[in-house]
Specification:
Elements (H helix, E strand, L loop, with lengths): L4 H13 L4 H8 L3 H11 L22 H8 L1 H8 L3 H11 L6 H20 L1
Helix pairs in contact: 1-3, 2-3, 6-7
């Protein structure tokens, strides 16, 4: 079942139970008739391979399992980074992605990394 269906299928079901046609439901919810039909089919657990994603949906993201992250990063480093304020974590992520623009931001990120490295070496 496409990921967008669970978010709208109850609304489709409610409107259909009120006697609205697929065309009326599609207009009401900003879907097309095929999407309305797919929502109805999803209640019957009929597989549909049509994977349309509405414009306002989130893009697909690759998400690591937390155990994989711990294995790749190491529990000690994960603890050090996890203890930082959210603003510092965001700064480090932006640094890793090459998104920092100012020298001050880059210097602060490098200082944070050096503090973490020193802390890990002393533990």
């Amino acid at each position: 079942m496409p990921r967008w269906i669970p978010g709208v299928r109850q609304e489709v079901r409610d409107l259909a139970s009120q006697g609205m046609t697929y065309v009326e439901i599609a207009d009401e919810l900003g879907l097309d008739e095929q999407q309305v039909a797919m929502c109805e089919d999803s209640w019957q657990e009929i597989h549909s391979s049509y994977d349309h994603t509405p414009e306002d949906s989130r893009p697909k993201e690759f998400i690591y399992e937390i155990d994989e992250v711990k294995a790749m990063i190491g529990v000690d480093l994960l603890k050090q980074v996890g203890d930082l304020p959210d603003s510092d974590i965001k700064l480090l992520l932006m640094h890793v992605e090459g998104l920092l623009e100012t020298d001050a931001e880059k210097t602060k990120a490098n200082n944070l990394l050096e503090r973490i490295k020193t802390s890990l070496e002393t533990n």
